Batch of 4 targets.
Target 1
Amino acid sequence: MDRIEKLKEFLQSNPQDNFVQHALALEYIKMGDEDQARALLEKILSRDPGYIGSYYHLSKLLERVGETQSAIQWYQKGMAAAKSAGDIRAYNELETAYEDLISQE
C-alpha cells in the first residue's frame, strides 16, 4: 500500500487528525497535486490556526503556483500564530521566507 493510501486509511479512523492530514498534504505536494495539498492545508488551518507547521507549506505552495498575495497573507498569519505560541524557530523560518518573497516583489 502506498503512503497516500495508508494515510487515508488512518484518516478514516480519525478524520480530524492534523498530523495525518498534514502528512497527506506533503505527499500530495511531492506528487505535484497542488490542489489536494492546498485544500488539506487550508482545512487544517481553518480548524486549528495553532497548527504552525502548515503555514509554511501552504505559503510555499502558493508561491509556486504564482499566488503571491495569498502567500504573503498566509506567511503573515503564520508569523502571528507562531509569535502567539512562542515558537521562535517557526517564526524565524516564516519571517525569512516572507522577507525573501516580498523582496522579489
Target 2
Amino acid sequence: MKLKTEFITHEIDGVQYLVPVGGEAFSGLVRSNAAAAFILDCLREDVTEEQIVDRMCRKYDAPRAVIAADTAKCLNTLREIHALEESE
C-alpha cells in the first residue's frame, strides 16, 4: 500500500498535514501527530502494514502490540478518507 498521489503532505511549524489535491470526495485536512507523520512518510513508497510496524518499533520505545494497534487505527482512518492505494 502507499499514499495516493491525490494526497500530499505539508509541514507547517513542525506539524505535518495531509491535504487532498485531486478529485477525492474528502475535502479537509488531516493534522498528524509525530507517529502518524512517520506512518505517512513510510507510505511514500509501497509498504505493507507489517513493514510500517517494524519501522515504528525501531523508532519508538513501546510494546509491539501497542504500535501495531495504533498503526492499524491510523491506516483505517486513511482508508476511510480514501487516501491509500492498496496492492491486490
Target 3
Amino acid sequence: MDKIRKGDEVVVIAGRDKGKRGTVSLRVDPTHLMVDGVNLVKKHQKPNPMKGVTGGVIEKSMPIDQSNLMLFNPATGKGDRVGFRILEDGTKVRVFKSNGEQVRG
C-alpha cells in the first residue's frame, strides 16, 4: 500500500518548488509521481503539421521524487507524515501521524 496515491493533495518539501501544493495526477514508477503545477520545465518543440502540433516553447510537468513530497493535512494546513492502521473489520487505512485522522480518498 502506497503512502501517496493518485488524487492526493501534496506539498513539496524540497527542491526549487518547495512550498507549492498540487494534486498527484499519475504514478510514473514506484518512486516518481506527476504533480499538477509542480516541476514545470520549458521544452522547445518542433512543429508537426501531420499531427497538428504547433512549434514553439511549451511548459510541461515532469516527474518528482516521492521523497520530496508530503501529504497535505487539511486539519493542520501543513504537510504531514502518513502511517497505517488496521480497522476492526480488517481493512488497512492510511492515517496522519500528527492527529491520527484517517486520510480521505
Target 4
Amino acid sequence: MVLGEHNRAAEEGTERIIDVVEVIVHEHYNRSITDNDMALFRLAEDVQYTRSIKPICLPRDDVTDNMMCITAGWGHTLCEQCA
C-alpha cells in the first residue's frame, strides 16, 4: 500500500510503501452496486504520521439512518466526463 501519495503521475517524495498483511472486506459488500464498499487493511508495520500521512477523522457521535455525512477516500473515481 502506498501512503502519502497525492499525485500518482509524479514522485513527490512524500510516498511510503507498506506491505498489507490482511484485507478485511465488509461482510455485506456487493460489487455489482458497490453497497458497503469498504474494507480494513492490516499493515505489516506501524504508520508514522507526517504532513502528508494522517489518519481520517471519524464522527464523535453515532451515525444514524438518513443522517447527512461526508466521506473521503480514494477508490474508483473515473466518470464519463473524466474519461
